[in-house]
Amino acid sequence: MCRIRPFVLLVLLAALLAAPSSAAFRRQQTHSKAVRPDNNELAHRGFNELYNEEYDAAIGDFEKLQAEYPNDPFPANYLSAALIFKELSRIGALDSEAYSGNNFMDAKSRKPLDLAAQKRIYALLARAESLSNARLQSNPNDTDALYARGVARGFRSTYQGMAEKAWLAGVRSALAARRDHERVLEIDPAYIDAKMTVGIHNYIIGSLNWAGRAAVALIGVTGNKQKGLQYLREVSRVQGPSSVDASMALALFLRREQKYSEALELVRGVSHRYPHNFLLAVEYAHLLNAAGHGREAIAEYRAILERSREGKYSIPHPETASWGLGVSLRGQREFAEAAEAFDQIPHCCRDVEPAVIDRSLLASGQMYDTLGRRDVARARYRQAVEGGRDNDYTAAARKYLRRPYKFSE
Who's near 267: CB < 8 A, 6+ residues apart? Predict the structure, then answer.
């Protein structure tokens, strides 16, 4: 089972950015002109900042937008998005290392939640739902209002799951988002952006085994993998923020289907579009390695580390790139270089997660054992054990202190 990446959890919890593309807008018949990036420069700039992980700038622009359009649910959702992603980044929930183990659903956040931010997020989501409901009372078929309400519910799902670890509540909110967007498509099949949530759910549920599909069918939820992929492709081809989310979701699923060529093209395109986003850049390198392009992945990781040193990313995580580099070098049997990459992780930046340090020490020790340098390997294992932490990595380090690690493909 592949490691879960930061954007993967966003995708699985239906973390949409709620901005219908211009193509969808042209097909819509609405009673008011909702504020979107294609018709508002401030919204356009805010999304560009958000996708480049420039959270404070995005929050400032979306605050101005909401003040200018207080009765439109879309700006409230935009501001919620920026606040949620800033908070998830602050507590380490967007770091891929947070999802590298099997206990990520129970793991505590690295930092406590900001209760003021939490209160504001929930107030904004309630505001977006309230504005949407008011419009739906006068017109139950208002597709913009249905879409905005579904987006607010999707964001609530994201925050509940990733920040609060309230997974059951998050699933309920995600299903409510799907129902809203299915209703949008019933009214107007040309409302392309609504296909993203529905497509994600269709693929995930369609990928369950027979027992899993039967269980969710009891609550009236069904899925179809091919329909899910088709919907996501449709959204990804339309310019706009929703196309970015759809592209990343589609890339995730294509990777699962081992359709690497299409997945690489999608991730490369989004990463080039938002060059200051570290997570997108490193995900492209991860995907290269998974696709069997180890040499290209090594070059990409090294380029990411160089760009991190040059300050090219808004929020760099060089420890993540160093880990990917070490794994790729190990796959190419360049064990000395892999050990060097793993050795960089505890010292590459401040505030490296302790479990990440333990994992890097273990991996480094394994490489030195493979090279026949038992004394250095034992030193790395002892460093992990002497940290006083109790996890899978330190348990493995104790084992390899007793007997050398043996490399196998």
Answer: 247, 248, 251, 280, 283, 284, 287
**For residue 404, how many other CB atoms are within 10 A of its CB?**
15
Per the structure, the count of domains in the chain is 1
- Look at residue 55 and tell me if it is in a domain: yes
Q: pTM of the full predicted structure?
A: 0.85
DSSP per position, 36-76: -TTT-HHHHHHHHHHHTT-HHHHHHHHHHHHHH-TT-HHHH
Residue 226 falls inside a structural domain? no
Q: Mean per-residue pLDDT for 251-262?
A: 93
Task: Say which DSSP state 391 is in.
Answer: S
Structure tokens at 225: 């993998």
Residue 140 covered by a domain = yes
> In Å, how far are 237, 255, 291 from 297, measured between CA atoms?
26, 16, 9
The residue range of the domain holding 172 is 1-188
Per-residue pLDDT of 190-241, as tens digits, reads 999 999 989 988 998 888 888 777 777 767 778 889 999 999 999 999 877 7
* Residue in this structure with the two tokens 């269980």, named with its chain if needed: 215
